[in-house]
Amino acid sequence: MTAVSLGMPALPPRGFGNISATEPFPKAAHRELGNGQLRANLGHATHTIRDKRLRVVSELPDWEALRDAGSAIKTEAMSRLPELLTQFEEQFTARGGTVHWARDAAEANRIVEGLIRETGSSEVVKVKSMATQEIGLNEYLEERGISAIETDLAELIVQLGHDKPSHILVPAIHKNRTEIRDIFLKEMPGVDRSLTDEPRRLAMAARAHLRRKFLSAKVAISGANFGIAETGTLGVVESEGNGRMCLTLPETLITVMGIEKVLPRAQDLEVFMQLLPRSSTGERMNPYTSLWTGATPGDGPQNVHVVLLDNGRTRALADRHGRGALHCIRCSACMNVCPVYERTGGHAYGSTYPGPIGAILSPLLTGVEAEENSSLPYASSLCGACFDACPVKINIPEILVYLRGEDVEAKHGRGPASSGADGKSNGRRRALPTQMDVALGAASWALSSGDRLGLLEKGLPVARALAGRDGKISRLPGLAAGWTQSRDVPAPPSESFRSWWKKRAAPGEGDGAARGGAE
Amino acid sequence: MSAREEILARVREALGAPEPVTDSLAPTGTRGAGSPDLGDGRRSYRTASGLDEDALVELLIDRLVDYKARVEVVGPDALAEAIRARLEGKRFVVPEGLPSEWLDPSLAAAAVRDSRKAPIAVDRLDELDAVVTSSAVSIAETGTIVLDGSPDQGRRAISLVPDHHVCVVPVETIVGIVPEGFARLDPTRPLTLISGPSATSDIELERVEGVHGPRTLDVIIVR
Q1: Domain CATH for B148
Q2: Residue in A closest to B186 by C-alpha
Q3: Which has fewest Cβ within 10 Å: A277, B72, B153, B160?
């Protein structure tokens, strides 16, 4: 029962890189929850951005219309992707740029390394980019003797602290000012030893540290928020000006962009440049946005490249119930409103993409069965706050539930080989039945017949013996132990409702509910 | 198969039988068959603000001040004096296409002139205190000023490296909202959208104005 034997096309290959959880989410979350400082920092930060976002979103009378348009444009872009990618390539090339294609993380890293080698440079400046984090570009280059310097303040804090980003927009959200000052004092060459933990002083220390790098850099690496098929234009949305420095001053500019970032028309920017800043930082507009099209003679980098990255995106696209996750514009609004993210932080998700969007995107890029990503779709209470906050209306809760189903199918599927929702076989092997399978099988047997249930109910008084003097059961065996780890179960009643009803119900007395309803 | 061929093949296969949405923002009824139901009037968001000039200027000023930019409104006759007051005693660069009447004769001689043909080196720009440019479009609702690399705005580097940007906004370049702004721009020019001085909120979400871009933004609206 493999995909091939059914004559079905195999799924596109999975993505690799920093998109896999290395331990189950519950385990990672449990550890992170023990960090009181982290929880305090996160609570403050997520609530601050949340309030700002609500304020600026409520200013726009047409916010819902913009969300609808954003969602429609993304749906269109995905459905026309082959055509739009080739059009983008044509336009970018016609205006003096070079387009490269990378099937996965390893290929993208090799391409970027090759382009840097051609320039003879061994140091590059970087604009914050999710795509290059996803493919682990910095680590790859470092191992090969090329130092990649992060220039976004938060990314710099993370890099100097030998740490990992924990948020898409504010990667150092888990560090407070004092922790940041300590990192700077320890790791920033030539830093003023009298540095205080005042944010302004810290930002100025970063400015001084990076200024020489910017002015002397020969090569810059960026991601892209948008790629416009119609014109071959790329765009980077930022705040600090480090992006402008990288995109303007070096001779060579290499951009790594996921293939799903392409938009059909330049006019579509009028929608996304309203949705993104307000959803992301809660500002009416971010301080700086740069748009460039190939190379402009006499202005900015003349050696301009873009690497179009798949790395599992086509796999996500092949999943018609999950492909909506590719509409994501990386604003991070979903993590700021998520009750789970707010408590565990981004590291617990184990992937470059944390929070609600990460809980669907990571397993879609790698396949839900890869590593520990199968635990990510459960990292949610399904409260739906992420759906409401999403500027392009990705139905995250629905995809979470769908992926849970896929995970169950993969692990406990019954009958013929489990199949994806599109009807294609995914060729997964069926695993041995677990305690859950056995328990659910038993429940199904019991609940499907009144007689069987009645018989079982006679055992209720026995179960009462498990309860303590307070009438609560505080420890259940086996799988159910997970439930009682943080909760008590009330002892079962001495008699079942059905048996009590049978004894008391005299003719004509059974319509109490109907009477109550008529009052 | 090359990576390009393979990725395109994967995308086609992933999409299955193609029924592309031809134009998601076209008026209802003109969409291609098979497009998802996107509801009526997909461009039902605002495309014009309907504000008059007074309201546009007032709104733009409000937004710019909120971003901690310094704003001044002057008549055409007072522009040169306003620029002079901002630059007195400073070393500054101007793009070659800056209208000559904008610079007071006492300043004109001191100005360092930059062009695509004769660009000033980055290290030299770093020694200068300020830059004066015009601008292509300003969007009042978001307090956004757009530079498009025209001769009166110059290369992107000159409005980036010096720490003080004096930016002139002719009143006729002000529009109300974002769609009106993009409608006036050529996306293939190098575009820089500026909304206040550079800023970061990376440390405990506390906003700090002025990081790598010019830390001082002076806006002079000419009307």
Answers
A1: 3.40.50.10420
A2: A266
A3: B72
